From TrEMBL:
Keywords: Membrane, Mitochondrion, Mitochondrion inner membrane, Transmembrane, Transmembrane helix, Transport. It is found in: Mitochondrion inner membrane. It comes from Lasiosphaeris hirsuta. It is a multi-pass membrane protein. PANTHER family: UPF0041 BRAIN PROTEIN 44-RELATED. Belongs to the mitochondrial pyruvate carrier (MPC) (TC 2.A.105) family. One of its GO terms (cellular component) is mitochondrial inner membrane. This is Mitochondrial pyruvate carrier. The lineage of its organism: Eukaryota, Fungi, Dikarya, Ascomycota, Pezizomycotina. It comes from the Eukaryota. InterPro entries: MPC. Mediates the uptake of pyruvate into mitochondria. The keyword Lipid metabolism does not apply. One of its GO terms (biological process) is pyruvate import into mitochondria. Pfam families: MPC.
Amino acid sequence: MAAFVKAINAKIRAHPVLNYVCSTHFWGPVSNFGIPLAAVADTRKSPELISGQMTFALSIYSATFMRYSLAVSPKNYLLFACHFINEGAQLTQGYRYLDWHHWGGREKAGLTGAVEAGKETAKEVVAKAVEQK
């Protein structure tokens, strides 16, 4: 049985693509892609839910590992791509957080909601006036 496993392993390691797919240089970044996928999905959620501290920490984390992915030998471009996407998503989230909490985004949203409610009320009043004629 051990000879069979050694023979299969040698055949896999002899093929460059299969060797790469069976390495941690491939599976590490692939398993790590859940972080940027979640971050990109979170850009559609309300900015009230964003944690400024966690966004900052994940931005530093991704910047660090972007640098690391190019410093190792051989360079791990898949890991770089993973953290590049995450860095972009975290910077977007950071902007949304600052806009909502520090640059008046919450107040703008409140005014927009009040204007929309006023428009609906005006439509109801016009509809009732038309009915009474």
